[in-house]
Amino acid sequence: MPPCERLHWLKQANSKNYHHFFPRAYLAKKHIEDWRVNHIANITIVDDFLNKREIRDKAPATYMGKFAKDNPNLSKTMRTHLIRLDSFGIEENDYEKFVDRRCKLMSKELEKRIIHQDIDSRGQAVMLDDVDDDAEQHNTGS
Q: pLDDT digit string (tens) for 39-96?
């Protein structure tokens, strides 16, 4: 089976494998607004069973501490998710630090993969209104 078929569930926004690294229920207790809880940097791939049976509403320091005892390769594995266990505020359950550091690392990794165009060197910015208009025209067939 081709890799793209094996990972078809990645295309689904409602996939049972997309979960919040800092659980929604945990952050709700901290009175963090939903729009901040649902930040892309707080989303990672975890199987549904592990999320519902082990992680639940626990603080990351709690569940990651348990996982680290059971898995000597956890730190290496988490690096493939663009998460650094030693410097992202996980041990302190620091959500702001986690999001900030993960965003920086995600940006750095994306930058490596971007094919730069001439327009990039001209310093032109894309306005969100322009992107929305382009998407709308595409969807309406205009």
A: 999 999 887 888 888 899 999 999 999 999 999 999 999 999 999 999 999 999 999 9
Q: Is residue 122 part of a domain?
A: no
**β partners of residue 18:** 45
> In this structure, is residue 128 part of a structural domain?
no
What are the pLDDT digits (tens) for 120-136? 777 666 666 655 444 45
At 49, list the tokens. Answer: 């069973």
Domains identified in the chain, total number: 1
**Position 56 in a domain:** yes
Tokens read off for 24: 């929604």
Assigned token pair, 26: 């945990």
